[in-house]
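Supplementary Text 2. Reproducibility record for the structural model of the 188-residue chain.

All settings were left at their defaults, and a single model was retained for analysis rather than an ensemble. We include the record here because the model underlies the residue-level annotations in Supplementary Table 4.
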Amino acid sequence: MGYRITDFIILIIFLFSASVAYANIEKVYVAKIMDNDDKAIIVRNNGDAYMIEKGIGCLSLWRYEGKMVLINSPSLFLGIGARLIILDSNQDCKIWDSKFIGQWDSLSFQKRDPVNSQAPDVKKYVIEAAYNDEIFVINGETYKAKTCCFNMMSGDPVIFLEGSPLGACASAIIYNLRTQKECRCWCE
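Retained model, structure tokens:
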């Protein structure tokens, strides 16, 4: 009798663990593919926006900007072992890195003016001064481009994907909402 109970317990554990492996699949919106195609901004149904960096295997992610894909997270959302799944293309890849970047409003799921696509929770800044596609003053702080960031002009709205708008950083990634391009900078 003890043999059958043990088998039953093992079967229950196996079935439970198999169901947990796929229990955290979530459909997300690909809001923006970044310049290098390995980074993207994804948005959950609750409006939480994340910058993700994917591994190899999802070569056609660039075609899914403005569309839905799947995220499989074995534990926490975008935690260790998370994978990006593109069903239509039969592709999946590991997610190497992710960072919460703020709230995205529900209207951003539609094609809109990129300047107004962020919810008020994502703090926008304005380029106060721009010089020679290399030096930018934002929020009273100076940032120097690691390589030229073409077409970044005074008055352009930006958000910080990495780094600090207070200048308290070694480097920053600034996303220009007008041009929809990112600029990698040194914090001066």
